[in-house]
């Protein structure tokens, strides 16, 4: 059979349905079924005034209730006060005397289809227990006779306890002779004289009602026995009672039958009388006594708890004394109340025309009698009425609908009754689906879900399931409860959809639809990790989750610690907080250590993950410190037991001490031991009263200290050591100061402490000079100058001297040297460095520790200007004993005088005889200024100024010039010219390429060689527009590089100046648009430079704001890419005044300015047109549109017959070291700034005199630098 066919659930069931709890929906008419009721017995106490008896049933129509008492209809005598609720089945009885309600009650619940009834409910009413008032005569017996004191306790609420006491509440002593029976009577096996008393009292205690009642006291008189031959009443001669054969006071007769229920406790009692007092023994006849049997009350009581059938039989007790015995037999019979053999008879639902069998199978001892009822009315066998009774079975033949009802089976014996209500429903009914239509079910992927299709019908229905009108297939789909439940195991997303349940029988069919939504499972995708955190820090546990978005409203993330939920509070003082998926624990402590579980939960599922949080803290204090002596009280061992390390290994233990003589209350460190050691051997000072404590240290820090030990006192002793760090100093020539590090008070070891100072001149004196002192310094006077002494310092106290010290050697005071070095020789190594040598002074003349030699030289004059006396002094000190040194830092081509002297700590010795010498010529420094100007299209005029230091006699200049490929930034051609004549300061180069970029390197030369080059860059231009203002490129190039890196030549550099800001503009070629530029400016009053952030060359302008009105500033434009912020251009600007009235007045008072402005405007128009035509003709540069409506052309020289480009917006070209300016003067502008840009970024590098960084360009080539040609062509002039 296929799975689809099996799921169709064609159920071929019997036409009769039986169930222990036939669950018929209330929508269907049905007889009553008792749901609950008050079971008996109900105990009513004397102070109770109300009884409530419950009885509840279900049925359709709803049942009504009635009550019976003792088999009779019960109507309360006063319905207003005592009422039975007919719709709820609640019986409330109220009275001051509840005893009248004592009896057995039944509840009946009825509707038109039948009547159900309950078991009998017994109500027992108890009054206040009391003994009757009575007058009791004394009981008079003779010695040896038995006595029975009867209690006859009243009935009452169990449990009831019986006590025998005197009037003053003293218990009557019981033993083998005197004992109380289970009936409450007090039995005396034989009387003695001491039994006589007037106050035997029986007390009955009822603990449930907290009541104790007392019987009237009884008197017992025991008459003394007299000898047979003595008739005197007052005879006191004791007579022993006669021996008497035992008999039983309890029970009476020879045999007793004991019947009890299975599970009850068995008690068999034999209380004998006789003299001497008999003893009691027990046997079970024919069998071995059960090991569960116990004997109490001096063997008079046999007890057996929870009897079973095996405990049945004949038991015998034997009472025996020296003269005979008595026996009694007990027949023990164990019976049972009625009970169901398997289960009560079941309610049945069946179709019309079928046979119905009701079986009532019970057991019990004696065998229960069975009574049958229908709707509470007894019936018997009636074959003519289709109802047959066969002892424990009732059969309904060819049942009809009117046979429906509640059938009662009641089984009874003398020990009890059991009752079963059996609902018999005989009907035909089409399927009734009880499950709500379109009920929605939800489940997560991977879990299981059960969808219900609860059906009621008669006969039972055949049930089938489909999904989206398709048969359900697959092993994951299971049907239960006759198809009324469909379970899907390991749900998948594809299981979502509509499911239809169809129920049908011979009477008809019904359908219901269920909607299933399979959702994504809740998962912890990033579980918390095991974490270690230090105490006091912040602990973080992350728990990232995923869940179905539709379950957002039901999602919650719960954190637990050690399976206990963590209370999360918005209180700012709470240490726990959850931020999204993270649990934060602030200021963690050891109590936070444990297992943390995060549970991601929705209404459908949950997922959990656990991590262990380990808190590391400082160690606990060590405990149980013990101190033990080794060989003396000053050599002890301290031991301890380490405390918990709190998850961080102990690295060391620190032993501290405190003594109460010198610094009481102050704890000091004494010793440290490794963390794996729990003992420390301590060396102690003498004459102190110690106590010790220990603390542990781990990676977190030091833990708390332990409790201190008991005081440990050490005896006084001689000092253990002498002073250390002895210093010998001579502050004056004939003095010696001896000082040392004194011993601390702890180290003195006893009273009377002082020092002995011993000294003698080494190699001269045999005996020591000694002095006793209390201070740690001693001054020796009248010593020879700087001679060695041998010194000892000893410590002592009243108990002896310290150990013998080692001698220390020192010297007495120093004096200044007395001799000067001889044979001074000077060797000139180069223009600035010398080698100086001499003969050292004799050691005896130093008169102290030799400090070294000092070389002193004076530059008397420069050989370039021998008539000018300079006398500039310099000196250098050289430590140690030496005979020659190297002296740097001299000036070339100069005359010097040099001396040498020795020095010590006391001062300098006399100077040597002076030596005079000259330094040779050197190469010149860089020329200070180099400018260029365009004369013709192929001619350039160079002008320069001499170097600031020629370092010799100038012989001329070396000029190198290079044609540059602007695209590749490479040298195309190079040439070199030697220019003779020191006074030459300009040079004109002809035959150059037109409209080309050249770089010029100029060096100044002496006989020693040529100095470093000064670089200048210039472009040849079209002559028809006049001379072009050159673009000065100052750059300092270290070393001997012939071709320094190039600086890009920008076009149309100009400035617009206002009162508080200045605008610097430029034009960049296409290959230069990615350059990074920097604008620097300086207030000429304070000399402080300020530099802008990097500006891209394509931006074409930069605004400098925050300037002061009417102030002179120096402005520089620098490039970073090629020369690392080397200066490209420089200009001096002056901001305008803020007073507009003065400007207005100026124009108004000078009418001729109007004509000037008109001329300037006309000139500007001509220049703009010329530049426009030139640029369109060349086609090399694109026209750049700016924010302002004008554009400057390249700066050009302006003199009597030429002019510079001019802007009509008050912009002016920046100076670049050419002779051209807006003012039209011929003075050369100094393009070299001598200020240092000290506050420039990238480390505050220092600028050279020409504005370039010092030390940045030696020894390597920058990216984009000009390629060097194979060799320059030499032109001799």
UniProtKB/TrEMBL annotation:
<feature type="domain" description="Fibronectin type-III">
    <location>
        <begin position="820"/>
        <end position="922"/>
    </location>
</feature>
<keyword id="KW-1133">Transmembrane helix</keyword>
<keyword id="KW-1003">Cell membrane</keyword>
<dbReference type="GO" id="GO:0007420">
    <property type="term" value="P:brain development"/>
</dbReference>
<keyword id="KW-0677">Repeat</keyword>
<comment type="similarity">
    <text>Belongs to the immunoglobulin superfamily. L1/neurofascin/NgCAM family.</text>
</comment>
<dbReference type="Pfam" id="PF07679">
    <property type="entry name" value="I-set"/>
</dbReference>
<keyword id="KW-0732">Signal</keyword>
<protein>
    <recommendedName>
        <fullName>Cell adhesion molecule-related/down-regulated by oncogenes</fullName>
    </recommendedName>
</protein>
<feature type="domain" description="Ig-like">
    <location>
        <begin position="246"/>
        <end position="328"/>
    </location>
</feature>
<feature type="domain" description="Ig-like">
    <location>
        <begin position="32"/>
        <end position="124"/>
    </location>
</feature>
<keyword id="KW-0472">Membrane</keyword>
<dbReference type="InterPro" id="IPR026966">
    <property type="entry name" value="Neurofascin/L1/NrCAM_C"/>
</dbReference>
<feature type="compositionally biased region" description="Basic and acidic residues">
    <location>
        <begin position="1182"/>
        <end position="1191"/>
    </location>
</feature>
<feature type="region of interest" description="Disordered">
    <location>
        <begin position="1252"/>
        <end position="1277"/>
    </location>
</feature>
<dbReference type="InterPro" id="IPR003599">
    <property type="entry name" value="Ig_sub"/>
</dbReference>
<feature type="domain" description="Ig-like">
    <location>
        <begin position="338"/>
        <end position="425"/>
    </location>
</feature>
<dbReference type="InterPro" id="IPR013783">
    <property type="entry name" value="Ig-like_fold"/>
</dbReference>
<dbReference type="InterPro" id="IPR003961">
    <property type="entry name" value="FN3_dom"/>
</dbReference>
<feature type="region of interest" description="Disordered">
    <location>
        <begin position="1182"/>
        <end position="1202"/>
    </location>
</feature>
<feature type="domain" description="Ig-like">
    <location>
        <begin position="522"/>
        <end position="614"/>
    </location>
</feature>
<keyword id="KW-1015">Disulfide bond</keyword>
<dbReference type="InterPro" id="IPR013098">
    <property type="entry name" value="Ig_I-set"/>
</dbReference>
<feature type="compositionally biased region" description="Polar residues">
    <location>
        <begin position="1267"/>
        <end position="1277"/>
    </location>
</feature>
<dbReference type="GO" id="GO:0098632">
    <property type="term" value="F:cell-cell adhesion mediator activity"/>
</dbReference>
<dbReference type="InterPro" id="IPR007110">
    <property type="entry name" value="Ig-like_dom"/>
</dbReference>
<dbReference type="Pfam" id="PF13882">
    <property type="entry name" value="Bravo_FIGEY"/>
</dbReference>
<dbReference type="Pfam" id="PF13927">
    <property type="entry name" value="Ig_3"/>
</dbReference>
<dbReference type="GO" id="GO:0007411">
    <property type="term" value="P:axon guidance"/>
</dbReference>
<dbReference type="GO" id="GO:0005886">
    <property type="term" value="C:plasma membrane"/>
</dbReference>
<dbReference type="InterPro" id="IPR036179">
    <property type="entry name" value="Ig-like_dom_sf"/>
</dbReference>
<dbReference type="InterPro" id="IPR036116">
    <property type="entry name" value="FN3_sf"/>
</dbReference>
<dbReference type="Pfam" id="PF00041">
    <property type="entry name" value="fn3"/>
</dbReference>
<feature type="region of interest" description="Disordered">
    <location>
        <begin position="701"/>
        <end position="722"/>
    </location>
</feature>
<dbReference type="InterPro" id="IPR003598">
    <property type="entry name" value="Ig_sub2"/>
</dbReference>
<feature type="domain" description="Ig-like">
    <location>
        <begin position="129"/>
        <end position="213"/>
    </location>
</feature>
<feature type="domain" description="Ig-like">
    <location>
        <begin position="431"/>
        <end position="513"/>
    </location>
</feature>
<feature type="domain" description="Fibronectin type-III">
    <location>
        <begin position="621"/>
        <end position="717"/>
    </location>
</feature>
<feature type="domain" description="Fibronectin type-III">
    <location>
        <begin position="923"/>
        <end position="1025"/>
    </location>
</feature>
<dbReference type="GO" id="GO:0030424">
    <property type="term" value="C:axon"/>
</dbReference>
<feature type="domain" description="Fibronectin type-III">
    <location>
        <begin position="1047"/>
        <end position="1140"/>
    </location>
</feature>
<keyword id="KW-0325">Glycoprotein</keyword>
């Amino acid at each position: 059979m296929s799975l689809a066919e099996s799921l169709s659930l064609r159920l071929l069931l019997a036409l009769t349905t039986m169930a222990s709890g036939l669950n018929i929906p209330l929508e269907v008419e049905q007889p009553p079924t008792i749901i609950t009721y008050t079971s008996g017995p109900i105990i009513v106490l004397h102070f109770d005034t109300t009884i409530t008896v419950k009885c509840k049933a279900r049925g359709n129509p709803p049942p009504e209730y009635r009550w019976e008492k003792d088999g009779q209809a019960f109507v309360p005598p006063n319905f207003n006060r005592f009422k039975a609720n007919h719709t709820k089945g609640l019986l409330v009885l109220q009275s001051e005397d509840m005893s009248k309600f004592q009896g057995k009650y039944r509840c009946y619940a009825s509707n038109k289809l039948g009547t159900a009834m309950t078991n009998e409910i017994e109500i027992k009413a108890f009054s206040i227990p009391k003994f009757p008032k009575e007058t009791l005569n004394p009981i008079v017996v003779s010695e040896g006779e038995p006595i029975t004191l009867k209690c006859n306790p009243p009935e009452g609420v169990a449990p009831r306890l019986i006590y025998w006491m005197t009037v003053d509440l003293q218990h009557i002593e019981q033993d083998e002779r005197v004992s109380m029976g289970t009936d409450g009577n007090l039995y005396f096996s034989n009387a003695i004289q001491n039994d006589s008393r007037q106050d035997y009292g029986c007390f009955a205690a009822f603990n449930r009602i907290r009541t104790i009642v007392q019987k009237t006291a009884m008197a017992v008189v025991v008459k003394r026995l007299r000898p047979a031959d003595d008739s005197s009443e007052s005879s006191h001669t004791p007579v022993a009672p006669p021996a008497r054969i035992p008999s039983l006071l309890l029970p009476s007769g020879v045999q007793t039958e004991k019947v009890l229920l299975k599970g009850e406790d068995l008690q068999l009692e034999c209380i004998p009388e006789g003299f001497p007092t008999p003893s009691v023994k027990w046997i079970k006849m024919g069998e071995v006594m059960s090991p569960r049997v116990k004997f109490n009350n001096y063997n008079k009581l046999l007890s057996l708890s929870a009897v079973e059938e095996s405990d049945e039989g004949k038991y015998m007790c034997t009472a025996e004394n020296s003269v005979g015995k008595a026996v009694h037999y007990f027949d023990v019979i164990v019976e049972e109340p009625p009970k169901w053999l398997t289960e009560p008879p079941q309610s049945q639902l069946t179709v019309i025309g079928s046979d119905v069998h009701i079986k009532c199978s019970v057991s019990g001892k004696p065998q229960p009698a069975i009574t049958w009822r229908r709707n509470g009315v007894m019936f018997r066998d009636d074959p003519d009425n289709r109802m047959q009774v066969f002892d424990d079975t009732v059969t309904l033949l060819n049942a009809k609908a009117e046979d429906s009802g509640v059938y009662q089976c009641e089984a009874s014996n003398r020990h009890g009754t059991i009752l079963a209500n059996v609902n018999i429903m005989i009907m035909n009914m089409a399927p009734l689906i009880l499950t709500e239509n379109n009920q929605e079910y939800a489940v997560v992927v991977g879990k299981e879900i059960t969808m219900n299709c609860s059906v009621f019908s008669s006969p039972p229905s055949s049930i089938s399931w489909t999904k989206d009108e398709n048969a359900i297939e697959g092993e994951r789909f299971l049907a239960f409860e006759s198809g009324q439940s469909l379970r899907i195991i390991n749900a998948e997303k594809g299981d979502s959809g509509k499911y239809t349940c169809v129920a049908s029988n011979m009477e008809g069919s019904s359908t219901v639809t269920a909607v299933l939504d399979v959702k994504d499972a809740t998962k912890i995708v990033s579980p918390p990790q095991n974490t270690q955190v230090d105490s006091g820090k912040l602990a973080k546990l992350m728990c990232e989750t995923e869940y179905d978005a539709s379950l957002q409203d039901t999602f919650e993330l719960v954190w637990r610690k050690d399976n206990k939920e963590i209370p999360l509070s918005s209180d700012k003082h709470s240490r726990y907080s959850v931020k999204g998926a993270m649990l934060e624990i602030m200021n963690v402590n050891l109590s936070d250590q444990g297992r943390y579980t995060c549970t991601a939960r929705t209404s459908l599922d949950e997922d959990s993950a656990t991590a262990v949080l380990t808190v590391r803290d400082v160690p606990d204090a060590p405990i149980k410190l013990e101190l033990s002596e080794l060989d003396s009280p000053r050599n002890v061992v301290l031991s301890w037991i380490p405390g918990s390390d709190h998850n961080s290994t102990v690295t060391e233990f620190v032993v501290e001490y405190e003594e109460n003589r010198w610094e009481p209350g102050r704890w000091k460190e004494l010793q440290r031991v490794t963390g794996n050691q729990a003992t420390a051997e301590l060396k102690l000072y003498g004459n102190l009263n110690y106590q010790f404590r220990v603390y542990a240290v781990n990676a977190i820090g030091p833990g708390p200290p332990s409790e201190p030990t008991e005081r440990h006192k050490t005896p006084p002793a001689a000092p253990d050591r002498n002073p250390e760090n002895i210093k010998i100093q001579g502050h004056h020539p004939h003095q010696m100061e001896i000082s040392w590090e004194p011993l601390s008070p702890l180290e003195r070891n006893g009273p009377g402490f002082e020092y002995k100072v011993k000294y003698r001149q080494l190699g001269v004196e045999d005996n020591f000079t000694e002095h006793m002192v209390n201070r740690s310094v001693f001054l020796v006077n009248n010593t020879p100058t700087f001679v060695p002494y041998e010194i000892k310092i000893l410590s002592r106290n009243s108990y002896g001297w310290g150990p013998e010290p080692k001698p220390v050697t020192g010297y007495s005071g120093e004096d200044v040297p007395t001799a000067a070095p001889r044979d001074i020789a000077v060797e000139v190594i180069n223009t600035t460095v010398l080698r100086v040598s001499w003969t050292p002074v004799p050691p005896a003349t130093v008169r102290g520790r030799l400090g070294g030699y000092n070389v002193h030289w004076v530059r008397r004059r420069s050989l370039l200007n021998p008539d000018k006396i300079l006398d500039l002094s310099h000196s250098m000190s050289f430590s140690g004993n030496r005979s020659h040194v190297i002296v740097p830092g001299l000036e070339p081509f100069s005359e010097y005088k040099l001396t040498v002297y020795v020095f010590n700590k006391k001062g300098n010795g006399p100077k040597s005889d002076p030596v005079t010498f000259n330094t040779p010529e050197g190469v010149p420094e860089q020329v200070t200024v180099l400018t260029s100007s365009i004369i013709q299209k192929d001619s350039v005029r160079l002008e320069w100024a001499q170097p600031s230091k020629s370092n010799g006699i100038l012989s001329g200049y070396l000029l190198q010039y290079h044609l540059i490929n602007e695209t590749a930034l490479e040298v195309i051609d190079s040439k070199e010219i030697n220019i003779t004549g020191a006074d030459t300061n300009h040079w004109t180069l002809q035959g150059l390429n037109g409209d080309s970029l050249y770089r010029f390197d100029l060096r100044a030369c002496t006989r020693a060689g040529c100095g470093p080059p000064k670089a200048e860059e210039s472009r040849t231009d079209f002559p028809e527009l006049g001379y072009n203002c050159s673009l000065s490129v100052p750059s300092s190039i270290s070393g001997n590089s012939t071709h320094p890196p190039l600086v890009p030549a920008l076009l149309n550099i100009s400035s617009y100046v206002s009162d508080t800001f200045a605008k610097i503009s430029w034009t960049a070629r296409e290959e230069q648009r990615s350059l990074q530029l920097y604008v620097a400016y300086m207030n000429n009053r304070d000399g402080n430079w300020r530099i802008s952030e990097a500006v891209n060359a394509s931006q074409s302008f930069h605004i400098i704001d925050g300037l002061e009105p009417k102030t002179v500033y120096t402005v520089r434009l620098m490039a970073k890419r090629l020369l690392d912020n080397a200066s490209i251009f420089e200009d001096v600007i002056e901001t305008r005044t803020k007073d507009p009235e003065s400007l207005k007045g100026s124009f108004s008072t000078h009418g001729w300015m109007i004509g000037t402005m008109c001329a300037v405007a006309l000139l500007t128009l001509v220049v703009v047109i010329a530049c426009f035509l030139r640029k369109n003709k060349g086609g090399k540069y694109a026209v750049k549109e700016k924010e302002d409506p004008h554009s400057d052309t390249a700066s050009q020289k302006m003199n009597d017959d030429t002019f510079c480009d001019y802007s009509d917006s008050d912009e002016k070209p920046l100076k670049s070291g050419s002779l051209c300016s807006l003012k039209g003067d011929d003075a050369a502008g100094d393009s070299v700034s001598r200020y240092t840009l000290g506050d420039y970024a990238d480390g505050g590098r220092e600028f050279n005199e020409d504005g370039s960084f010092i030390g940045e360009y030696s020894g390597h080539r920058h990216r984009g630098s000009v390629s060097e040609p194979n060799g320059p062509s030499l032109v001799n002039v």
